[in-house]
Amino acid sequence: MSRKGIYLLVAFCLWLWIMGGSRAALTAHSPVVDYYELKIPDSLPPPVYDFKKNPLTKQGIALGRHLFYDPKLSLDSSISCGFCHQQFAAFGHFDHAISHGVLGRTGNRSVPTLFNLIWQKDFMWDGGVNHLDIQPLTPITDENEMGMDLKALIDRLQGNQTYKQLFKEAYGSEEVTTERMFKALSQFMATMISFESKYDSVMRREPGVTFTAEEQGGYRTFTQKCASCHKPPLFTDNTLRNNGLPYLPSMNDVGRMRITNNTADYLKFKVPSLRNVLVSSPYMHDGRFFDIFQVFDMYDHGQEKGNTIDPLVKNGIPLNEKEKRQLYMFLNTLTDRKFISNKAFSEILITD
Amino acid sequence: MKRLILLILLFTYTGTTAQQVQVEISHVVGALPMQLKTTTYHNAAGDTFNITLFRYYLSNFLLTDATGKTVSADKAYFLVSEDSAASKQLLLQQFPAGKYTQLSFMIGVDSVLNFSGPQSGSLDPVYGMFWTWNSGYIMAKLEGYSPSSRLPNHMIQFHIGGYRAPHVTQRMVTLLLAKPLEISAGNTPKIRLQADAATWFNGDYKVSFRQIPGFMSPGMPADRIADNYQHMFTVQAIVN
Fold this sequence. Notes:
The complex is a heterodimer. By secondary structure, chain A is mainly alpha-helical. Helices cover 37% and strands 1% of the residues of chain A. Chain B has 3 helices and 17 strands. The radius of gyration of chain B is 19 Å and the shape is globular. The interface between A and B is medium-sized, with 32 and 27 residues. Chain A: It is found in: Periplasm.
């Protein structure tokens, strides 16, 4: 046999060995998962969330949904994430000004809505949490919310038969870890996408869908007076601002300043999205307004103009009665009925 | 795929042997050995106090030789805690053979890992070294009691963290080695370090527990205490 023939034979054997190894690695160590493709309209900016570090799978999303609706994530197994984040209220807390939690305790801020989170780079009313994967750590461990110790929670889930199965399906082994748990929750929350409102249909020029004259008038007012902060298509620019909401001594909430220790951030809070706004009352970081017309009135004549008030609203936003009515009609077109009734996000009853 | 990587590694093998270095850390408070709960210490401001918890991250270990050439250990994050003997024995991996005259490392966790979501291993948030309400690692933690403290139960609580300008608390430490550390094949040399917790309160920024019984967010006092504890380490011995 020639030398060349030997080289070829050796190369062929090596190739077989490498390929054999790759196939064995795939089947022996990787779970059999079904990758899930998130459908995002083309008109949107690319998400902030890095899916390369947490690729969506049907099994991961299913595990995340189970965790989201499981009261075992709280100290006395009474409060799940879904307890405060209700689907029909766009995952805000219907009719509750202030979040509440285990043992009858009360927090000090309003429950934020949950959707389009993969475009958000920080979380909470003061932007203090910097990654979607780490966000649930706050409500889970906060003594006024779910009141759970993280280590105790990991142990509790590890001892549960259902979770052994769900973690195995999602990750290939039964092991429960902080990272796996949080990434599964992110997978479920990443699928909460809301771009199916009447507004979206009008913008996409879908046949037969148009604004009424009142809605069109409201859209004009919105574009002139609201859109620089509540910027379409997300209806927020994800900044933190002081909108002139009067300070309440009984709450003593300094907003962003608590995070940065910088007096320039006094009373600054996150600009919330206006999508689904009419189904997610009450409003403001402390839920003080139960009616959207109170919010209009605050901008029209109810601001407190302190040092840190945002330049864009420091002169107020004058709104007459007709503008308020039309604005209400326009905001109504931002309600995404498909989102708030989508069966893929609905509550599952967990009793074990 | 793993086999392919192994093959590539074999073919690119240059003959430089990569060795381990053992770092042993002991804790003192001024002239006294650290003993949790039972020993009473004094700070420069005249407060008496004890310590119930002393814990910090070390990372980014580097060695420098006499010519100024620097080599780094494998990326690793060590959570050192007074209550765990094992945590005070650090095994640094993958140093090339050589004679080194300087040891450097970071007290804390690199900025990027403070905003990359939950990590595993020693960086897992289960160890209570990650802030929940204001994301980011607690680089170092010291808790105890002092009669001077006006906090409930007279506790003192210092959780030092912050990775965003202007409140950045990671600190690089550089220690000169009195005799060179010799790394060669089949030998794991040892460096004995001592960390003095008294430096937290007695450095350029004097802490009186009457005025500051604790600090648990990013901010100026945290920055200054990190400046203080940047000087807490000394080299006790090199065992080649």
